[in-house]
Design goal:
20 helices; two-stranded antiparallel sheet; 1% strand; mainly alpha; globular
Length: 453
């Protein structure tokens, strides 16, 4: 076999994504372990650096040290770069560089982009990359301006620091990473709790998380709708399901927590509504919270685990099994109950292989969370709800925690690192990367019968 043939077999698009993220995490770990990255001038240690780099590159937001107080400006900048590249994709950034240098995008690179962006075809994938970069920059710039203005007036920050905070939090939240610098103003791990009843901040922060979570394909459809007067089936499913999950999630959290003295109880009626909506939105993979997650009732915590497991949309900066996968599962259940052969959404029949893929992805994801929850149960001396919550948050790249992250043992940090990485790639991408090329069998096996139910 020729060298080119071997490279094609060895460097399939899923494998390129797998190794690309590993290289990015390794580079981030090296930089964050330098003394210059620490606010004290003393290295935070290789394991903490690896944890932080993985969390940033996989746009998760779980932190073992406070971003605002533990890192220098250099360290914070490294984290932000990892978040930006990890959010929109390293292949997207590589394509941008190639376009700037006026280089041709090869078929192999287009296939990798198709895999990275969850695009259905390689047709128009380079145009989509240009849109991804343009939309990201526009949203992040607008978000940074809106946040900077508020930081000047609400926190009385100097203009330079307010702009820095605005840029940092805009990029972090749009990429659904959840890293924040509020610890340097209000104490370590303080987060966004001071804005729990602030309508302006709630709207801006939720908008950034929402826009990052619906995916670039949906953003493109929405912006082009005035011209084409048409929206794709994918966008209809994502937008309708997101709206339902956000408002139903907010309502359930409100009803469960309305009298909880540790969360919504002390707030005004308006504050309770904003806090409920925000916690619902942040489970899309936002990574920040405005109430103490550890103070929630267990029923609410478990409900949030379910929302984190569903996650954001395909081709977005968020994680989870994805909203479309969840909708397909519901569609399959509905079709089975009604005795129908096909899954139909918005009067469109969904191909069976897509439904099988959704079922496979969901089952693999459940098994991964169960496996790592068991491993964490062995190494961590915490209640199981905290461990299950941490596992779901790491897999869904959500980044909210009940407080377990900062108390993880070295082994616990390793388990969470692995889960964040697997959650960002997606279990199917990893499975495709580890298996050989699948070829259709030239024969059919005889049909057998098995009893279920």
């Amino acid at each position: 076999m020729t060298r080119g043939h071997w490279s094609k077999r060895l460097l399939t698009p899923p494998k390129i994504l797998v190794f690309g993220f590993l290289i990015m995490i390794a580079a981030g770990t090296l930089l964050l372990s330098l003394p210059a990255a620490s606010a004290t001038g003393i290295s935070i240690g290789p394991l903490n650096a690896l944890f932080t780099a993985t969390s940033a590159a996989c746009v998760t937001g779980l932190t073992v040290v406070d971003t605002g107080t533990a890192f220098s400006v250099f360290g914070q900048t490294v984290i932000l770069l990892l978040v930006q590249v990890g959010g929109i994709g390293f292949m997207t950034m590589a394509t941008l560089i190639a376009l700037v240098l006026n280089k041709r995008i090869s078929l192999r690179e287009r296939l990798v982009l198709q895999e990275a962006l969850n695009h259905g075809t390689i047709d128009g994938v380079v145009r989509l990359v240009k849109k991804v970069i343009l939309y990201s920059l526009l949203i992040e710039v607008v978000g940074a301006l809106l946040l900077a203005v508020h930081y000047v007036f609400s926190l009385s920050l100097p203009l330079g620091k307010a702009v820095y905070f605005g840029v940092y939090h805009s990029i972090s939240l749009f990429n659904n990473a959840g890293f924040d610098l509020m610890g340097s103003v209000q104490g370590p791990f303080s987060g966004m709790a001071s804005f729990v009843s602030d309508p302006y901040m709630n709207i801006v922060l939720m908008a950034l998380i929402f826009l990052g979570g619906i995916g670039f394909i949906v953003l493109s459809d929405l912006l082009e709708y005035p011209k084409v007067r048409k929206i794709s089936l994918h966008s209809k499913v994502v937008l309708s399901a997101t709206a339902v999950l956000v408002f139903v999630g907010g309502l359930v959290i409100f009803l469960m927590e309305v009298n909880n003295p540790h969360t919504l109880g002390p707030l005004s009626t308006g504050g309770k509504i904003w806090a409920s909506l925000f916690q619902s939105v942040t489970t899309r993979s936002g990574g920040v919270n405005t109430v103490d997650i550890g103070g929630l009732h267990q029923s609410t915590q478990f409900f949030m685990i379910l929302l984190m497991f569903i996650g954001a949309a395909p081709g977005s900066t968020g994680g989870g099994i994805k909203i479309t996968t969840f909708v397909l599962l519901l569609g399959a259940v509905h079709a089975m109950i009604r005795g129908r052969e096909d899954v139909v959404l918005f009067r469109k029949r969904i191909a069976k292989d897509v439904v099988y893929k959704a079922i496979t992805l969901t089952l693999l994801s459940i098994l991964l969370i169960i496996l790592f929850a068991m491993l964490l149960s062995v190494t961590e001396d915490h209640d199981f709800m905290s461990i299950l919550f941490e596992s779901a948050s790491a897999f869904g790249t959500t980044g909210i925690s009940m407080g377990l992250t900062t108390e993880l043992s070295p082994f616990g940090k390793v388990w969470v690192i692995c889960l964040m990485y697997l959650g960002r790639l997606g279990p199917l991408t990893l499975a495709y990367a580890l298996t050989r090329d699948n070829k259709k069998e030239p024969y059919n096996h005889p049909e057998g019968k098995i009893i279920i139910g």
